[in-house]
Design brief:
The protein is α/β, with parallel strands linked by helices. The chain is about 35% helix and about 15% strand. It contains 8 helices and 10 strands. The strands form 2 sheets. Strands 1, 2, 5, 6, 7, 8, 9 and 10 form an 8-stranded mixed β-sheet that branches. A two-stranded antiparallel ribbon has the order 3-4. Helix 1 packs parallel to helix 7. It is globular and about 50 Å long. The N and C termini lie close together (about 10 Å).
Length: about 270
Amino acid sequence: MTEVNRKKYRTGAVLSGGGARGFAHLGVLKALNEAGIYPEIISGTSAGALVGVLYADGYTPDEILLMMNASSTLHYVRPTVPREGLLQISGIEKILHDNLRARKFENLKLPLFVTATDLNRGRAVYFSEGELIRPVIASASIPVLFKPVIIDNTTYVDGGVMDNLPVKPVENICDFLVGSYVNPVGREENVTSLLQIAERAFMLNMSKELDHKMHKFDLFIAPQELKDYKILDPEKAVEVFEIGYKETRKKLSEPDNQKTIEAMSNKEKTTP
């Protein structure tokens, strides 16, 4: 195989939104790493952007889990005056400010795309250069629930509004593409409060694009167990992490996936 035929990156990972279910992404990444699969580029929306930025900054999945686990004294959200949003992502913002070594995309150890929704123009925007923290916070700012983020006079909200599984920035530049989707939609018996209605409507909107994107991945992980976990409840972080880890281990053990990974490994060995 010649250099001309090689794509820019051997392995890429796309991490969906899904709120606190995003802890499953960490389990996915840990299982991949244990199997010798290390993404060279990340594309993430919302929870996937939060996990992606810390992973791209050089932290291991276990270190990120410890950092973000809700059993610590940090709180992810707090009430605010209901003018622009019901909650503020104060704890997450503090985690990023306290722990990110990079302050610009260019300073990360791995290339990263962060998806946010341009609310003014109604489009997905894929940030990959310049200031780092505000685009990540914008990517995770669920409309109505969280306050929007203003960047260069443009109002941004959660990337999941327009693109919850942001494969677009990386689909043509990776030899092997892994998708981690943590937003399965199951039946919900009780949807009565304003918060429940907003959460449920957002989840349903995020799931609409899945069918036509799944085929773009060489390895796709979407644990159905996650439907039993709320997107705004980080208290089950370790359980959610384990679900992602076990599902990935299971997927990696399937014969078809083993053949794909083996073929990728052989290609790496023969590529100059």
